[in-house]
Every structure is written in C-alpha cells, then in structure tokens.
Fold this protein.
Amino acid sequence: MSYKLPLSFPVFEGNEQKYSSKAIQSGHLATRGEFIEKFESALSRRLGSHEAVALNSGTSALHLALVLLGVESGDEVICQSFTFCASANPIVYLGATPIFVDSEKDTWNMSPELLEDAILDRLNEGKKPKAIIAVHLFGMPAKMKEIMDISKRYGVPVIEDAAEAIGSKIGGRACGTFGTIGIFSFNGNKIMTSGGGGALISNDTRLLQKARYLSTQAREDLPYYQHLEIGYNYRMNNMAAAIGLAQLELLDHFIERRRDVNMRYRDLLSTMSGISFLNERSEAFSNYWLTTICIDPEIADTTNDKLRVRLLKEDIETRFLWKPLHLQPVFQKMPFYGGNVARDLFNSGLCLPSSVNLSLDNQREIVDLMRTTLTKQLY
Ligand SMILES: Cc1ncc(COP(=O)(O)O)c(C=O)c1O
C-alpha cells in the first residue's frame, strides 16, 4: 500500500544509480564484488573504532550475534520489551528464552534499574543470562553507560540493537559501538537503506572473522565444499552494498533533514496541548529516524487512534509505537520485569510521517488535520 505521505520513504539523491550500474557491469550481484568491502570500510570509518560485516538484514545480524556469543537452546537472553519483534525473535530461533525488561520514561529504552533487578532475580533462580539486547528505539540512544556498567558487574555481554539508530551518538560516540556486538538495519524504511540489509559490528577480530565465516555457509578454505559447522546464507550482496554505500555517503544529510522534520513538528504542535515529544538528554544525539509523540487524551481532547484515523482519511500514514513484546500473544509466557511504561507508551503514542523529503507544507497539512480532531464535529 502506498500513501500520499508515508511514514518513512527512501530518497535516492546520490550515487545509487552510478554504483548499482557498476555492480551490474561487473557481473557480481551476489556475495562477491567490490562494493561489499567498500561498504564495510566506509561504515567502519564512519563508526570510528569498530569493524563491520555487511549482512542481508538486521534480523540476521542479531541472530549471528547471539550465535557468536554462544547462545544455545535452554539459555536465557534479556531483551528490551518495547521494540520490534525482530529484536527478540532470533533468541527463539536458537531455542533460548527471552526475558523482557520494561523501558524508562526519559529514553523509552531499557531501564538500567530493571535490567539489574532482572539479572539478580535470574541469578537467584540459578540461571545466568547469556546476553543482554539493548535497543536504541526510534534512533534515541539508550543509557549505554549504565547498561555497560551492569553488564560488566555481572559478566553478561551486551548486543546493541542499533537497527534504527545509525548516526545516533552518546557523548560523540556512535551508538552500536558500546556493547560487545552492535547491529544495524538498512531495510527500506530506515534512515538509510540498501534495499534490505544489515551489519554486525565489533572491535573483536575473532568475532568478526567468525561472523564472516558463518554468514557465508561456514565454508572451509578448500578447493571443494567442506563444512565443520552449520552456517547461514546471511551475507549482504554486491548490489545491496552498492546502494548502501551511496546512501551512507548521504547519511549526515539524511540525519540533518530528519532532525529538521522533528524540530518543525515541535514548533507546529507547540500550540496543541497534551502532546509531548521524546527528548534527547544532554549527552545524547538522536538521528530522529521517526518523530514520535505521546498524546494525553485528558488534556489533548483526542487520542492516538483518532489522529491515526483522521490522517489515514487523507492518505497520510502514521503508526502506533511498537507494541511491547511482553504483551504480544506469541511471547506472553515469557518472564517480564517492570511496570507499565512500555504499555502506556503503546497506548498513547504515535509515529508521524518523517521522510527526508517531507516539506514544511506537508507538515503544516498534517498538523492542521491533527487539530481538526480536537473538536468533536468530525467524530
Ligand atoms: C529495533 C529493530 N531491530 C531489528 C530490526 C530488524 O531489521 P531488519 O528488518 O533489517 O531485519 C528492526 C527493523 O526492521 C528494528 O526496528
């Protein structure tokens, strides 16, 4: 389904055509070809300290990350509840159990206090969690310093799910580079895309080598096919890498535009009471992949669903915030630590159209329509 104003639509304003034509001319469209390495090097340079392995999705990157950390059937992995299902599904692929932790109000990400409670309780039950998956949701950095302190205190490694947060930073340091392993997604709706794609990053050479090996079917370096381990077909292809490289060259520009979109919403919505935004704390820098708001129905005289339906009538896409995973039927039997933060965000929040090419006039139209739901005559 296509909308007049979609939530997040890609733009191709740089070298995408040029690089993809070059990939076609080279004949290498699969998992060999110059753009895969070029994309990885450019991504590593951008991150500063870490090396990247380009993969075919953020989900496969998370799956590989868990495999690399030795997660097996019967293990437990702590995961932020307020996130997309792909953060937790790979735990289940491995026969392990997700242990969900609630968010905190100021970042909407994993609460460090509840994380520690969860670890202590699992230890009490005689089970040491094998890993922690912390997410930088909607591009907003999680409290990585606090989370890493807890990780070190209890010896549980962190996988940073930065699928939505490429370019976001804490104290100038890139999100994704705090944990043992970080992952990104370059899916079509993200701030930069390779069509479909992802990356796994680390500064542990051994883990990176193993990621390359496992992502290409665990092939031994022999003149015939020999396998000592079960591998995966998870490598990024050269065509995706060509597009990804061109998009990466534009990342700063995309972030600037998404941040402009966010600032303009703040300005345009400042006269509507009962609407609040997710704000950066002092050391955090968000890529503002999506602009998200919360609506207090008592004050605003409207709800997230009324706004969604009104905008949909004009072919404008909005979406509820992620439904917390501990409330998903498929995960309902999994342990959960926390209260109602993620639940309340889901009940009151909305993602607004945030594409790079959204104009001021588009945003004025959106906000004017939002205003019409404040009076009862339309309902
Ligand atoms: C938080 C989060 N984690 C993981 C993923 C998975 O990424 P992909 O769609 O590339 O598999 C996504 C996005 O889709 C996401 O938003």
